[in-house]
């Protein structure tokens, strides 16, 4: 796919102009307050690895729903280790531990949060979503889209915030940073905006940012799910975007104060560069962005993982 979005000079200045809801902060304060206490179970798990200790984790997510995850720690640790909490891309689940060895091989802890209701597109998951409601097109972006209280991402964002509480309960977890790719990058921005106790956020080609812009400039999935829903429910599109405004990663980025280290791909038809820059330019903490001029949604691929490791070393020194 060619470079289809704004020129790089304009991307660096791009600001998303859609106003956020007046009660945005109240909505999220209420959402996070109206939850049961976080409970977590760390069950030792034999992953067949000799250099990594693994736990099968279950913690209390949104509404008391059980959410799964993997915790991986270096077997040769002498005490608590700094840990990366990773959120996953659209359609992905936690998979199996052998798929998540890069960060723990670099000496960090690694918590991989499963994604409720997903985990059947490209990596397996083990967590359901018992609260799905309302007419929706295939996928997750339009589930409950007419009411912020019922919207799918209200549940997933809350899970992501509570995952940090869960992993911090382990005796051998020290400081925490958050990271992820695409949907996972958006979740890391959400957590950075809603918490003040994380060391940094490393979002790769983040999704769920500048919804109106994303749906206007790309025909690719998953933004096309919203377009398809609005084309069928053609008298309700304004209500749909009013809901989405509570879940825009740009708004959370504007509340984040920890270090943010982004990546963007200029040929990305899934998360258009202007949507990534909308979040980056709104981000309030110290920040940097790595640009991949000739890449699509894979972004920097393994180079982004190496970049994350370098950032974690800087954060945790």
Automatic annotation (TrEMBL):
Active site, UniProt feature: 182, 268, 297
Binding positions (substrate): 90
GO terms classed as biological process: polysaccharide metabolic process
Domain Acetyl xylan esterase: residue ranges: 1-305
Pfam families named among the record's database cross-references: AXE1
GO MF terms, alphabetically ordered: carboxylic ester hydrolase activity
Domain of life: Bacteria
Name this protein carries in UniProt: Acetylxylan esterase
Source organism of the structure: Herbidospora galbida
